[in-house]
Every structure is written in C-alpha cells, then in structure tokens.
C-alpha cells in the first residue's frame, strides 16, 4: 500500500514540476546612471524597458538593462507612472496634470490634452488594449479622477467617480472591456461594469491607506496593496475583500505584478528607513514570502514582468533590479531526456512531499560517475544549503532551521547538474 501511495504522490509531483519547469530565479541590481528616484516602469520586451521618475526623468534600455539612456520628456514635473502598449507607443503621467505620449520609442515625447488643470496629480496610466486606456489621480481632499481614452490618447474624457471615490486614485485594472477596479488613498475600492461610465464603492474591510497597486489574475481573483503592509484579496470579483498576511506592518507595499496566475511579486519598503521590501507568491497569492534583497537596497516602487523569464523593478535613488530565470538551471524532464544523456535532467522522486521534519530524495534513477552532491534554494534563488559526497542511492533532506515554504533542489554528478525537483516544507 505504501508503494502505491508513493507512486501516486510521485506522479502528481512529476506533473507539477514538468508543467512549471522550475527555474533558478535571481534579482540583479542594474546601473541606471541616475540618482533620481524612479517610480514607474514598463517593459514591452525582454530587451527594451522604460523607467520614469522625479524631475521629468525617463530612461530607456535596448539591451536588457546593461545600459540606460536618458530621454527628453519636455518637463521637469515628476512622473509616477509609465506604460507602453508596444515597442514605440508609450504614455507617462505625473504631478500637476502632466501627461505625455510618444509614438517613436521615446525619441520625442509630446504633451497630451487631458482637460484637467494643474491641481490634479496623476498617479497611474493604464491601457487595457492598444487604444483604450485610463489615467487616474486626483486633487488633494477631493474625489478621485479617472480619465478614459478610446483612441490611443488623442482625446481624453473625464469619468464620474463622485459617491464612490473620496480621494486620489492610485491604481486601476480592467479584467474585461467593461469590468474594472480602482483603489484610492482613503482605502476605497471602486468597481465599474460598464467601461467606466459609472462606479460603485465596495468595502475593503481595511482602515489602512490603499496607495499601492490593484491587480487581477482572473475575472474573479484580485489583490490590492497599500500602507503598513496591507494586502487584500477578493475571490468574487470585488464584492468582498479579505486580509492576507504580508509578514510586515512597517513597509508600504506599492507595486505588484504576476507573470502567470500562480507566480507574482510585490515591492515596496520602509519609508523612514528607506529600505526595500519584496514579497513573492507561488500559489496564486494564498501565501507570500519575503525575498532576500542585497544590503542597501532602497525603497522600491513599481514592478513589471515581460514574461516568466524577465522582469524589472524600480525604486529610490535610481535603483533598478532585473529578474532573470536562468534557463541553464531549469529543472524538469523533456520527452527527449534520458538518464544517459549528459545534457538531460532527471526527476528525482521525493517522499513525503510536503513534509515537516524530513523527507527522502530517491537518486537511484541516475548512474553517478562522480561524487553526488545537492544544493537547496529558496523560491527567490538564494542558496540555503549544500551537501557534498552524499549517498548516491537516496538522500535524507532534514528541515533543521528551514522555514515553511517551497524550495528547489539541484543534484550534481561531480560538477554537472543532472536533475532536481521541488519540495514544500509545512
């Protein structure tokens, strides 16, 4: 009976690992060439990315972040949000009603006529598709402002939020052409089901300021973040919201992005200490774990993923981080793999998995030619443990001081990676 259970669990784990093709993930600090605080980021491709910030700063890279070139935005006003709908067409918004557009990859930026005055500070620009977009913000002490375009920013129309929003709107997200959500500084979450023609307020259940990002991974499942570590989730299209544990009460959680329905990140930081914070989820936002950042990482503002392999984060003092999922560290089995192929990866069976105190990794499906060793990484890619000259038939992985969560292991034959897998410590 135990053998049958072992095989059943192994098949499930094999399917999960093969489907996700686990990768070693790293966040690398880049040299931006500026000390200006960066508060917006948009990456239309893995090599092209734009960052915006204070004093009219707009930066562009065309080589995956190796170098960044300042662009002439035509303003000294601070930007808070930037978005590109393709490699050439982009929008940036900020203080005092500032809104600019480019149609040539940032070679030139042109002011847009939005119909609002300098008393309105813009906080977010968002496009649902190539032509339909929204700008949000608001004046101090008044209901939030939402503008809409249906012609790629040529003209903008003001939408009515009175009675729903009571303060500046910091973020907006649409799950369809008609259904959209936004969050304001006073903790209100508002929803439209008619493309923004009217908005209804829903209780967030939180007294904290929602000055972060609202993001949906499906038509029903969404998240919103804010001040003092507040993180909320809805599973019923915004009708009700529940509080999730972010593990912090001192950090503002400002930027959020998922590269698929299960894997996402939140960035922010401590305002007083100017220290960065990053959280990661691999289970669709049910649980969030801290990502270890380099010492001295300042407060972070926004994050944008191109795909599962590439992402960018920006923050204070010109900080830019790049996410890379290294293909050479992929763990999984392809249909052409075999244990005798030096370029293949083996899937090593683990039982029990999940586990609490210890588990056994079965290594018998690989014929080792040299010394067997194992490396264990947390979900952010940090090396947590390394054991050399281990038993070539099976290895007992003990929890010891490891915290609960997902871990990735890699098995080596001498210095060659021959496989690995994923374990969950409860």
Q: What does the model show?
A:
The protein is mainly β. About 5% of the residues lie in helices and about 45% in strands. It has 1 helix and 36 strands. The strands form 9 sheets. A 5-stranded mixed beta sheet has the order 29-36-35-32-33. β24 and β25 form a beta hairpin. The two termini are about 25 Å apart.
Q: Given the helix and strand composition, which structural class is it?
A: mainly beta
The helix content is under 10%
Poorly predicted runs of 5 or more residues? 1-24, 326-343
User: How can the largest sheet be summarized?
Assistant: 5 strands, mixed
Strand order of the largest sheet: 29-36-35-32-33
Give the distance, in angstroms, between the N- and C-terminal Cα atoms: 24 Å
Number of contiguous helices: 1
Q: Please report the total strand number as a whole number.
A: 36
Rg from Cα: 23 Å
Kindly estimate the percentage of residues that lie in beta strands according to DSSP.
Answer: 35-45%
User: What's the overall average pLDDT, rounded?
Assistant: 88
Shape, principal axes of CA atoms: globular
């Amino acid at each position: 009976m135990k053998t049958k259970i072992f095989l059943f669990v192994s098949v499930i784990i094999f399917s999960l690992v093969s489907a996700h093709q686990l990768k070693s993930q790293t966040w690398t600090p880049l040299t931006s060439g500026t000390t200006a605080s960066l508060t917006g980021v948009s990456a239309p491709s893995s090599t092209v990315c734009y960052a915006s910030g204070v004093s009219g700063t707009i930066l562009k890279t065309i080589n995956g972040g190796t170098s960044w070139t300042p662009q002439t935005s035509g303003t000294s006003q601070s930007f808070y949000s930037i978005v590109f709908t393709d490699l050439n067409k982009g929008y940036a918004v900020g203080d005092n009603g500032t809104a600019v557009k480019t149609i040539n990859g940032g070679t030139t930026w042109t002011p847009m006529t939005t119909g609002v005055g300098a008393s309105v500070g813009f906080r977010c620009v968002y496009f649902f598709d190539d032509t339909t977009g929204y700008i949000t913000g608001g004046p101090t002490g008044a209901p939030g402002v939402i503008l809409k375009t249906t012609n790629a920013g040529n003209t903008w129309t003001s939408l009515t939020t009175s009675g729903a929003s009571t303060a500046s709107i910091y973020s907006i997200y649409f799950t369809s052409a008609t259904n959209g959500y936004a969050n304001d500084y006073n903790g209100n979450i508002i929803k439209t089901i008619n493309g923004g023609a009217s908005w209804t307020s829903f209780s967030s259940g939180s007294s904290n300021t929602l000055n972060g990002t609202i993001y949906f991974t499906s038509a029903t499942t969404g998240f919103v973040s804010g001040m003092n570590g507040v993180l909320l989730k809805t599973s019923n299209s915004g009708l009700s919201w529940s509080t999730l544990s972010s593990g912090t009460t001192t950090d503002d959680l400002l930027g959020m992005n998922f590269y698929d329905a299960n894997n996402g990140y939140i960035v922010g930081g401590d305002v007083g200490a100017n220290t960065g914070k990053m959280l990661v989820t691999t289970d669709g936002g049910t649980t969030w774990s801290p990502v270890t950042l380099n010492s001295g990482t300042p407060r972070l503002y926004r994050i944008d993923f191109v795909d599962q392999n590439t992402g960018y984060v920006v923050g204070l003092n010109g900080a830019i981080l790049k996410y890379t999922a290294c293909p050479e560290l992929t763990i999984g089995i392809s249909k052409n793999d075999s244990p005798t192929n030096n370029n293949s990866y083996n899937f090593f069976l683990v039982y029990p998995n999940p586990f609490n105190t210890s588990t056994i990794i079965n290594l018998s499906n690989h014929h080792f030619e040299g010394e067997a060793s194992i490396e264990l990484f947390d979900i952010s890619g940090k090396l947590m443990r390394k054991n050399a000259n281990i038993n070539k038939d099976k290895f007992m992985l003990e929890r010891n001081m490891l915290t609960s969560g997902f871990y990735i292991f890699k098995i080596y034959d001498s210095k060659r990676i021959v496989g690995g897998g994923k374990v969950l410590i409860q």
